[in-house]
Design goal:
β23 and β24 form a beta hairpin. The protein is an alpha/beta fold. The protein is elongated, with a radius of gyration of 28 Å. The strands form six sheets. Strands 1-11-12-13-14-15-17-19 form an eight-stranded parallel beta barrel. Strands 21, 23, 24, 26, 29, 30 and 32 form a seven-stranded antiparallel sheet that branches. Strands 20, 22, 25, 27, 28 and 31 form a six-stranded mixed sheet that branches.
Length: about 700
Amino acid sequence: MTPFPLRSPWLRWSLGVCLAWAAWAPAHSASGVDVDSTTPYLGIGINQLSYFDGAQAMADVVRESQFRGTDWSETPSVDAHGNPTQDFILIFSSNRFAAGTYTLVFQGWANVGVSGAAENGGAGPYITNKRYNKITNTTTADVVVPNTLTGNCWFNFNQTRRTSASTRSDGLSNLHFWRPGYPADGSVLFTQEFVKAMKKFHVIRGMDFVSANSNASVNWSDRTDMNFQGYVGSKGQPWELLVQLANATDRDLWINVPVQANDAYIRNLAGLIRYGSDGVTPYSRTQTNPVYAPLKAGLRVYVEYGNELWNSGPGFYGFGWSLNLATKYMADTTHPIAYDGALTDTYLAHRRWIAYRSASIGLIFRQVFGDAAMMGTVRPVLASQVGNANVYLSEGLKWAEGFYGQVRTSPANSVARQVNQLWWGAGGAAYYDSTTAPTDTSAATMRAYFAGLPSAEFASNTAIDATWSRGYGLKSVAYEGGPGPGGSSSGSATGSVELAATYNADSRMWARMKAAHQIYTANGGELLNYYVYSGSPPWDFVNDLNPGVVSDTSTVKLRTIDTIRMAPKAAPTLGTAVPGTVWFPNGGSVGVQFDGAANWRYNGQAIRLPVTTGTGGKAFSGMALIPIRAEQAGTYRFSLAMYPEADTQVELMINGELAGTFNIPGTCGGICADNAYATSPVIKAALPAGLSVVRVRPVNNDIWIRRLIVR
């Protein structure tokens, strides 16, 4: 028996029609907004379900509860689906719990007690109308909560009898605790307030929901199935539940694939999202009556490998897992990460591994969904450290262009692919803080904090990630971001949740968050997933000063999201306006990124872009990534001012596409005189309106470049 069966024949028929339509319907967000819309496109992270997460997300409270042994410290014995096989305690809240009449249902029999302190000394909860049906082996009861409860609330289940023939305390199964006003048949999964909160965003990211940082799953059998009861811990919530949340809210879905998951796991995951499942096994084709429906037609799925695999901090197990995998293959020249020769740098191998596994996951999704769905319905993402820190982004992009840019002999990579056929987007986080730390709540400190929010580093980091991403034809994406006063996992710079919550609840947060999102957009950012709806102060969006008894929908930060979502995007400020000239003297123009540039010459007026030869290919040659912005789309004329020391070919790429190759004759016969720079022939190429990124890269000889000219 599944906990949430779709019993209605009409519902099953409707889902079948939707699934048939999904096979050919074009991808579009149910919200009507995509990354290219005139208003911002943004997402929200959701936390693991627990009795302390504060989300109030589930109609069945058991989904947000945790089993304990009868002495609280004990972890009870459970069966394969998490059902206790002994007497136990069920903790269902540690914050505030709403008054009302709840419905308790389980298979088996037990003496049941309920405990919880009411606010203001009112009456506590009690159980009434308890009934046992011996034929169906089902117990039902009403749980009356006369007054809002506060602090820990729990059930005691004693003298449990799993079956009518049981003679000892052997636990229960299929335990449910339905909120007031919700049907007790599983036809409604999520609370209406939680759905309303999620609808404020366009994308739901389930990183914590599926425990991406600690999820050690390798095989599909390791994952949590939909029959599982209670707190799932490091196994993560069922994928079906995350898909049903996207369907219930009409919002796009962002998934985080477990770091050690094998190819069969990933293929099953892709099949579950495309075709649905029976609660345990994904279907392999469209079903008329799926037990658990696939992702709704028109919604998109973003696919990320793990989470913050660059992060070696406590709790981020993905770093060690992925580093170990990279180390295993770094000297194996038959493996993609070492295709151009055995690696000796462990961390270079790690950067390549992250890109390799991320790309190969996307290719498995391509096999399941088909080519036509890629980058529309299915959008793989290469996530990296913010601002290309430790070159996780740039090294991954260069490796992918080198390896996938030519035909390979292995079946999985037998077709040459551009980087923008592997990923839809790329980038790091988009967190921001103030130039003043929130050390107290004095008027002066709070005034200084909001005046300095966000710091200038936010704009520069966004610009760096946007330049690299767009330079390879990808969207600039932030997997996480937003304000978190103090930035400490304990609540703030001083370790106080209350202190951070005071800043989050201040009305000035509205203006500063709005301004920060405009800065993000102006500097090339296209999709920002805010972290996190609940359960992780100081970043969460709920009211930690006064926790609610239903999902928050109207805090200062959530009202700010309403404003951000509906306001026009900021015009781009990143890059040089064209027609115009980008100069490279003494360090280069703002926003320009140089890779592989050894030094400057000619009185600091030109930068050297070195060519790389060998099995790695031109992907590893030096390059300049140059952001420019055109007020109008059209055809423009591109040329280079440079010092032609030798005959050189230089590629011109625009937003990841090759626009042409400059053939530059060497006229100096060696080092040129300081005033002997020349202008290259012209390449005509189209530019869209707005931000573009140009890459220039030598093919056969080093080149010294002075400026890019666009007319």
